[in-house]
From TrEMBL:
Bias (Acidic residues) ranges: 22-31
Record GO terms (molecular function): protein-disulfide reductase activity
Keyword Secreted listed: no
Biased composition range(s): Basic and acidic residues: 1-15, 106-115
Keywords: Disulfide bond, Mitochondrion, Oxidoreductase, Protein transport, Redox-active center, Translocation, Transport
Native source organism of the sequence: Bucco capensis
Record GO biological process: mitochondrial respiratory chain complex assembly; protein import into mitochondrial intermembrane space
Gene: Chchd4
Lineage of the organism: Eukaryota, Metazoa, Chordata, Craniata, Vertebrata
Residue ranges of coiled coil: none
Record's keyword annotation contains Transport: yes
Subcellular compartments: Mitochondrion intermembrane space
Domain CHCH: 57-93
Protein name as catalogued: MIA40 protein
Length: 131
């Protein structure tokens, strides 16, 4: 039925292949080019986005990411707060699709960061004092 068996002879393997390789077209919008296409546009089909550009919050993600990508502010993306807020609000409506980091883990990370900061600052003071 669905399978087809083809036997290759020794002679079949001795003749060079007639397969032709086609050069990649850099303007092919369906070709995986990475996150940024050669013309500077965002490649929404890039697997690196993990499907964020589709789904129930895809439009909010595209809006926020586009704003950040094209931002010319001194602090890049500082003009995109509203778009990121809309994206976050959307994602919170779908916790199964967009799992949030556990609040306890967040608090632990924050407290570890705060604990590390004073130690680093005091170490820097000691270094300055000893020179």
């Amino acid at each position: 039925g669905k399978d087809r068996i083809i036997f290759a002879t020794k002679e079949d393997h001795e003749t060079p292949s007639s397969a032709e390789l086609v050069a990649d077209d850099p303007d092919d919008p369906y070709e995986e080019q990475g996150l940024i296409l050669p013309n500077g546009d965002i490649n929404w089909n890039c697997p690196c986005l993990g499907g964020m550009a589709s789904g129930p919050c895809g439009e909010q993600f595209k809006s926020a990411f586009s704003c950040f990508h094209y931002s010319t502010e001194e602090i890049k993306g500082s003009d995109c707060v509203d778009q990121f807020r809309a994206m976050q609000e959307c994602m919170q409506k779908y916790p199964d699709l967009y799992p949030q980091e556990d609040e306890n883990e967040e608090k632990e990370k924050l407290s570890k960061d705060l604990e590390a900061t004073p130690m680093e600052a005091s170490a820097a003071k000691e270094e300055r004092g000893s020179s």
